[in-house]
Design goal:
Elements (H helix, E strand, L loop, with lengths): L2 E3 L2 E3 L17 E9 L8 H11 L1 E5 L12 E8 L7 E6 L2 E9 L20 H6 L3
Antiparallel strand pairs: 1-2, 3-5, 3-7, 4-5, 6-7
C-alpha cells in the first residue's frame, strides 16, 4: 500500500523485533504499473515476462478481466528502487514490427519527468541545471 503526505510518497517499513531502525534500507516500494500502447493480442502473461525485469522486481500481474468494455493495458505489480530513475517506456520488437510500451505508475502524484526520479523537486534537479542554466 502506498502512503502519501502532501502528495509526496512516504517509504515505510515494518520494524521487526530486535531490528535496528538505523540499519533499514528504505529504497524500495511496491507499485502497480500499467503497460500501455501494445496491440490487444499480445497483452498477456508472456508480454509481462518480457518486460518484467526492466521495471524492477516483478511480483505478479493482474489477470482480472474488466466487467465493462475492453481493458487496453496490462497491470503488473513490481518492487521498484526509488533511488533509480523510473522507466517511462520500452521498445518491444514483435516480428518485423516495433512498438513502444508506455508505463503509467498508479497513484504516483509528484514525479519529475526530466530525470525520472522522486528525490527532489524541479528547482533542485541536477539534470535540469545542466540542460537549462537560467
Amino acid at each position: 500500500m502506498l502512503w502519501f503526505f502532501n502528495n509526496h510518497l512516504l517509504l515505510l517499513q515494518k520494524l521487526e523485533i530486535g531490528e535496528d531502525s538505523l540499519q533499514l534500507s528504505l529504497h524500495h516500494v511496491l507499485f502497480l504499473v500499467q503497460i500501455h500502447d501494445l496491440p490487444l493480442g499480445i497483452m498477456s502473461e508472456t508480454m509481462t515476462t518480457r518486460i518484467k525485469g526492466f521495471l524492477g522486481e516483478f511480483l505478479d500481474y493482474d489477470t482480472r478481466v474488466p466487467s465493462i468494455g475492453i481493458q487496453r493495458f496490462i497491470r503488473v505489480r513490481v518492487r521498484i528502487d526509488v533511488w533509480l530513475p523510473f522507466k517511462q517506456k520500452k521498445k518491444v520488437l514483435l516480428g518485423e514490427k516495433m512498438y513502444y510500451a508506455r508505463f503509467q505508475y498508479e497513484k504516483l502524484n509528484l514525479f519529475y519527468f526530466i530525470c525520472g526520479k522522486l528525490r527532489h523537486g524541479e528547482s533542485f534537479c541536477p539534470v535540469r541545471v545542466r540542460v537549462d542554466p537560467t
